[in-house]
């Protein structure tokens, strides 16, 4: 059959123009849904960035005895560095510890008259790839499993002795064990809730858009009936509706993206900057970050709008085209 | 003119409710005939028309159109069947957002016919139905008689061998109904077979064509040059 694809586009264009109200309603529905998803996705992404950055602040300090030998200092450091969970191990000498402490105070503060720099211990500062593993690592220190020197033949007594021997130069470890557990419980809950929010929003907006498109097709049931009656093939009936649905989806997505961009630039960007100044943390925000997530979100919204438009029309048509 | 165009062989179509069902009906309609399907509402007239259009399958029995068993026709071939059947309905089934011209041209467009063919054929058919000066009107700007003429024009523009009309005068004033039936008679004269379901007895009596009467899903009368019936108050 000689069918000109241009005809379908013309047919779709005419029908958009003539069903202006229905088309507008569908587009507005797409805009509202995608606008909510897009904006909330950015806000949620940013709050997760903040949580992530705060989590990264969780470190273990391993305080060392003053009389630790160079040899063991290196042994400790090499051993700790070899662990998978560890991002970095830094040795902080007594002097550096003092310097660090001084950062927090006024130079002429009376604190320095009370504290003798020599009383501050040297330490290892351990940071983590995944801060949630901090407790495991801390337990490793506590259980004395830092060096696994046991061989099967050796007796228990000997093992204990060796552990004690190697423990010898570690005075204490701190990682705020009281709050770290609670902290991660809170951040994990926030992560789960935000994920649920965005997933629910995404799904509900897909359903809403789909439903609007379905309604606009149902409202034109008669047209489809007539098409079938005069002997239009199924694809001849489908194409104009699919093009129309796709155009609605794309237009809605583009408007939503435009609005989100305006919101980002006028409001969220300022918020991100404010947070960036507030926290001395390496935050990679959605808008001002190095790899701006907002454009990925834009792409996602565009593709979503387009696909729901096309697939939604196709599914809604299935019922009518069957006959 | 002797060839059978439509043949129903023991066709039954059952619905959950008894109304509109047809039971074990058989008849044959030859090429070029003009046939009235009559009977009270729910007697199965529309069901027969919809079976011919293959809008659904019969529960049992066989339906032949131009010698082919359409029950065996593949779903994808249905559009091709319908291209050979013109259809006119009580509610016109015009597209409200298309003009008279576009509504009629639509039947050509769907078949992938080129523009120039539309430009010659549509005015011709508009002349035939007497709507030359309503080319650019939308359906809502036309009277019901005019709308029905547009729908007949659309049904006939492809010169189908078969024209089905389901209560074409149901929504139309009696004097205008006459014009519609005359138009259908003219179409019939060009060799197109016309099957018309109606309960407008005056038209049936006037035309004196073949009458197939249905009651409660069964054929109770099949008469050449028939009248609607002696009792006219059983509408």
Explain this structure to me?
- The complex is a heterodimer of chains A (323) and B (235).
- By secondary structure, chain A is an alpha+beta fold.
- Chain A folds into 2 domains: 5-55 and 183-321, no CATH class; 59-174, Alpha-Beta Plaits.
- Chain A has 11 helices and 4 strands.
- Chain A has a 4-stranded antiparallel β-sheet.
- In chain A, helix 1 packs across helix 10 and helix 2 packs parallel to helix 10.
- Chain B has 2 domains: 1-84 and 163-235, 3-Layer(aba) Sandwich (Rossmann fold); 92-159, no CATH class.
- Chain B has helices spanning 45-52, 78-82, 100-109, 115-129, 144-156, 174-189, 201-207; strands at 4-13, 22-30, 34-38, 60-65, 68-69, 85-89, 162-166, 193-197, 210-215, 218-223.
- Chain B starts with a strand and ends in a 12-residue tail after the last strand.
- The model of chain B is unreliable at 231-235 (pLDDT under 50).
- Chains A and B meet through helix 1 and helix 9 of A and helix 2 and helix 3 of B.
Summarize this structure briefly.
Helices cover 69% and strands 7% of the residues of chain A.
Which features does this protein show?
heterodimer; A: 323 residues; alpha+beta; Alpha-Beta Plaits; 2 domains; four-stranded antiparallel sheet; 11 helices; B: 235 residues; alpha/beta; Rossmann fold; six-stranded mixed sheet; 7 helices; globular; disordered C terminus
SS strand fraction of chain B: 25-35%
Estimate the mean pLDDT confidence of chain B. 89
Helical fraction of chain A: 55-70%
Main beta sheet of chain B: strand number and arrangement?
A: 6 strands, mixed
Q: Summarize the main sheet of chain A.
A: 4 strands, antiparallel
Number of domains of chain A: 2
Low-confidence runs of at least 5 consecutive residues of chain B: 231-235
Secondary-structure element sequence of chain A? Answer: HHEHEHHEHHEHHHH
| Helix run count of chain A | 11
Which stretches of chain A of 5+ consecutive residues score pLDDT under 50? 148-152
Q: Using the coordinates shown, work out and report the CATH topology of the largest domain in chain B.
A: Rossmann fold
